[in-house]
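Why does residue order matter? Because the sequence determines the fold. Keep that principle in mind as you read this record.
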Amino acid sequence: MSEARREQEGGLVPFVPSALAEAVAADWVLEFSCCCLCRHFVEECGSEFRRWRDVAQAVSNGFSKVTTHQKKMVYLCQLLIRIADGKRLECQFENDTRISPLESALSFWTLLEREESKLNTLHEEIRRLIQIQVVAVYMEKGYYKQAAEVLDRLFTDTESHKPLRMKLAAIVKSKDPYVPLLQSFSYNLLLSKVKSYVELFLKENGTNFLLQAATKQVESKGGELSVLQNKTLNVKEERENQERENHLEAKQRLTEELWSTTDWLTGDITSLIRPFSKERCRTSNVQRLKVLKNVEEHGNDLPCGRRRQPWTYEEDKKLKSGVREFGVGNWTKILIHGDFNNRTSVMLKDRWRTLCKIK
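Structure:
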């Protein structure tokens, strides 16, 4: 027996097995990282969410066995990580490469529901929204075959699932990602509902040992006010930067879409043929009238002095080759690796849609 062990057993120092102490500390860290991850998900702090995502992943992976107390926190962290990357089909969370981030999230939502003592309307709404968005994301990317295949994995043969499955099957068959059902049960609505669930979770589990100890430490040093002010300033600065980036991105996309909208003026009418809802038809007609007025006033010149150029046979071949190599939806990669003459990623996407309709 070591001298340290004899001193501990002799009453000088209380002996605590290291493995047990590590387990308790790991439980505290899991609670704290889950709390931080949830808070940054609700506040939409992207950089902080990614930082605590890595911490939560590392802590969760460190458990050889998850206790009943820890299950809900582990499942919730995994759910939020997958929801945050829900539209990035290149992200893989499962060994089966067919499983998208949202389909993986659905499995963790099922596990979370099993840990609930009572299910309510919010639980059912989130489940339905995840199911719909699994299909919607595939359709937005142009992967209609995968959208059809995923229906068999998502739904059982129970009567309760039959109506929604039939509706989604009809939508996939139409190959129109802009139908009212998908617009009504949007990805933003899914995020909103998940945030509501997370806020309820934080209300019930918002306090933990590490957070309480840290709060006491800050208060004892009189630094609570300064920390709060710094946190507020950082959050405000990050949101302002994000809004600025979103504004610039929207402005650039609006310009690119204006170029592609003029296809109908030069005879490329096939790029505009697809089912529209009444509201979208009215919006589209207004946009076209604005373009027509601009052309009448300023000629056929496009923004920034650029003139629309018809697609050549060689460009079509390069576009098809790029889709075969990089896949539908990776327009930026196709644009970079292909030799296109004054084209944008939006133009490539629109031209691909036109080629698909011509087929």
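The CA atoms of residues 261 and 281 lie 14 Å apart.
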